[in-house]
Design goal:
Blueprint lengths: L4 E2 L2 E2 L3 H20 L5 H12 L8 H19 L12 H30 L8 H56 L17 E3 L8 E3 L5 H6 L3 E6 L6 E5 L22 E3 L11 E5 L18 H6 L2 E6 L5 E11 L19 H14 L14 E8 L5 E9 L3
Parallel strand pairs: 6-7, 8-11
Antiparallel strand pairs: 1-2, 3-4, 5-6, 5-9, 7-8, 9-10, 10-12, 11-12
Helix pairs in contact: 1-3, 2-3
Length: 406
């Protein structure tokens, strides 16, 4: 899939990639013939493109078209035409450009002054009826101006208020999770079950009467505070160091914290369909992409391979056992319509056969932004981290890791 990348852009199909290659070659040919440092040449080329003399087939060509249009528009606003020529030599061109910019700015200033002068003509130059009409219009404009000022002031207060609330939640969340991290391994339980050896054991009777799981000692205190705790995730040298929650749906922890209070940051939580006891092939964990960087706000740093190389290990402990994972795939996806026949990473929880497992691995490898060198085989346990991505509507940024135990 690495062959479908060109000029910093990724393409899903071979035909899109070939179209982009043709556009890139066409752009290089244009640059070889046209001096893009000459305002006249830029304006003439822009008009030729607009007239259809040059046609592009891909986003690379469209980007070039857009940048060319903006540059031509800038030169036209400064008074250049397609016949304009700058002197030879970089210094001479730079000097000529600055001179033209100053002349253009002076002309605009002169127009503004002229306009203000016309507007400031004495009312005495008009008859009484016209004076009355002018005064009425002035009052209307003044009223609209004041209303605009008031409206803007209200918006500004609202923005500051929102920023204040956002900051409050961010600071509260930071303090809460720092305190929760301190409770890992603590024996300071809030309840009276510390002396009860069965307090942190789960018993199964359906076909597993003998099976018994115990909560790891370091998570006993946290589990006692909130029985919805299912584990803890940590990536060294990042802000990701959080408890992982789980409920019967994937809605509650979108806007609630560990203490079950309303919180815009939400919590890191596991997909409701996952089961850490009867272990799924793939455990999926979600978190908000917060602008503050909290939760999974910096997860998209994995888009760069250099970052991944330095943060390739993810520790995810369930409340019953410890686990260490190595990043395998990093890709962008989105939430698809139910009737769309495409690979939907968020539906991959279990693989009942080697063929099904390998099929899912090929899909993720094809989407991956780069090759980590890590692969998985049927029987391996996977961990998927998912957060929102603004690159497209309903976009998602995904990191998939393979368990390497301890």
């Amino acid at each position: 899939m690495s062959g479908y990348e060109l000029a910093g852009r990724r393409f899903r199909t071979a035909s899109d990639y070939q179209a982009a290659k043709r556009d890139l070659q066409r752009i290089e040919e244009i640059k070889a013939r046209v001096d893009l440092e000459q305002p006249g040449d830029v304006i003439a080329l822009s008009e030729a493109v607009a007239a259809g003399e040059y046609r592009f087939e891909s986003v690379i060509g469209n980007d070039f078209d857009d940048s060319l249009y903006e540059l031509a528009k800038k030169y036209k606003s400064q008074g250049y035409t397609k016949d304009s020529r700058l002197p030879a030599g970089k210094k001479a061109r730079k000097k000529a450009l600055k001179k033209q910019e100053k002349a253009s700015a002076a002309k605009k200033t002169e127009k503004r002054i002229s306009k203000k002068t016309k507007e400031s003509l004495s009312l005495e130059a008009y008859d009484k009826e016209m004076q009355k009409a002018i005064l009425t219009e002035v009052k209307k404009r003044e009223k609209r101006r004041k209303l605009t000022v008031v409206f803007c002031a209200v918006i500004a207060v609202g923005c500051f208020g929102y920023f204040g609330v956002y900051s409050y939640f961010a600071q509260r969340t930071q303090m809460d999770y720092e305190n929760l991290a301190l409770l890992k391994g603590s024996s300071s339980l809030s309840g009276g079950s510390w002396n009860n050896p069965d307090a942190f054991k789960i018993h199964y009777t359906e076909e597993e009467a003998e099976k018994e799981l115990s909560v790891l000692p370091e998570y006993e205190t946290l589990y006692q505070k909130n029985k919805r705790l299912i584990g803890w995730i940590k990536i060294d040298d990042t802000v990701i160091d959080y408890p992982v929650m789980q409920t019967a749906n994937n809605e509650y922890y979108l806007d609630h914290n560990f203490n079950q209070e309303y919180d815009k940051n939400g919590s890191i939580f596991m997909d409701a369909a996952c089961d850490v006891v009867h272990r799924n092939t793939n455990l999926i964990i979600y978190g908000h992409h917060m602008k503050s960087g909290k939760m999974f706000g910096n997860l998209n740093s994995y888009s760069k391979k250099e970052y991944c190389d330095k943060h390739s290990l993810i520790r995810f402990d369930t409340i019953y056992e410890k686990g260490l994972y190595q990043v395998m795939y990093v890709f962008r996806s989105r939430i698809f319509n139910e009737d769309e026949v495409v690979f939907k990473y968020y539906q991959f929880l279990d693989a009942s056969s080697e063929k099904e497992f390998d099929s899912n691995m090929k899909e993720m490898a094809a989407l991956s932004l780069y090759d980590t060198g890590v692969t998985a085989a049927f029987g391996d346990e996977l961990l998927t981290l998912s957060t929102c991505d603004s690159s497209e509507q309903d976009g998602r940024f995904v990191v998939v890791a393979k368990r390497i135990w301890e």
